[in-house]
Design goal:
single chain; alpha/beta; Rossmann fold; 2 domains; six-stranded mixed β-sheet; globular
Length: about 260
């Protein structure tokens, strides 16, 4: 089992203006963990720390009991894959879908090596599993946001990691593609991957289940099971607006909604 552990993390750009402080969380293979909170509280910054892109100012991060900063990028990439947000920078990628996904084999290649026939075969198989074969020779930049998100997840899977970290994987997607990505995330967790993702939508966390860490606008950070952590009171405090969490009997699951009166 691969375990990523962060202990008492803190990050700031200016010493007197902490983005977050004292954060502790753990992700293991086969688990799902959603980091939730309003915009601007540090969710994406936390992910950058956890994958080694941005070193924290305080605390430590270990991957299988080894300090993250002591592992080479190649060593990290064989255990941990990062899927960034779909945004305007995606249009700068000029590769075909096949070549973009094939980059997932980079951690297993030498400095000047080219992909092997086995690498290419693995790529073909993965695209087929995710129903992306028809897009393999299309430009990645020409795809829709939902298609790009699935292709980025495919690239992460080709790394053969144990843990996958996703930054707001549904933020740029319509409802249909949101459901498709969430189903894929659920399937990956059931297959034994450890999944950590961020979102600003509590309903996504309620759908996925597992563990959740809730940021608040005043620097708080609470971790626990989704069912006990995402209460009406705690969500209302975090988002500074009245939010109600209720159970839908027909589907036997919880949902949340804004409790404010919008009548005019």
């Amino acid at each position: 089992m691969t375990i990523l552990h962060a202990e008492k993390l803190g990050f700031h750009y200016q010493p007197e203006q902490a983005i977050f402080k004292g954060l502790t969380l753990t992700l293991a293979s086969g688990e799902i963990h959603t980091i939730l909170g309003p915009n601007g509280v540090g969710k994406s910054t936390l992910l950058k720390c956890l994958v080694g892109v941005q070193p924290p100012n305080e605390g430590q991060i270990t991957l299988d009991d080894q300090h993250l900063n002591q592992l080479s990028p190649r060593q990290r990439a064989r255990k941990l894959a990062f899927v960034p947000q779909v945004n305007a920078s995606s249009t700068n990628v000029s590769l075909t879908v096949f070549d973009y996904v094939l980059l997932g084999r980079t951690p297993y290649q030498g400095l000047l090596a080219t992909p092997t026939l086995q690498d290419r075969h693995q790529c073909e198989q993965l695209l087929a599993q995710l129903s992306l074969t028809a897009f393999s020779q299309r430009s990645f930049a020409a795809l829709s946001g939902g298609q790009q998100q699935l292709v980025m997840i495919a690239r992460a899977l080709l790394q053969e990691p144990d843990l996958i970290i996703l930054d707001e994987p549904t933020s740029a997607l319509d409802l249909g593609n949101q459901v498709r990505v969430l189903k894929l995330i659920n399937q990956l967790q059931q297959q034994g991957y450890g999944i950590l993702l961020t979102t600003h939508d509590p309903n996504l966390a309620l759908m996925l289940g597992g563990a959740v860490s809730l940021f608040t606008t005043v620097g708080g950070f609470e971790t626990g099971p989704v069912q006990t952590t995402l209460t009406s009171e705690k969500l209302s405090q975090a988002y500074q607006t009245p939010i109600c969490v209720t159970t839908v009997a027909e589907q036997q699951r919880q949902i949340c909604f804004i409790a404010s009166d919008f009548s005019v």
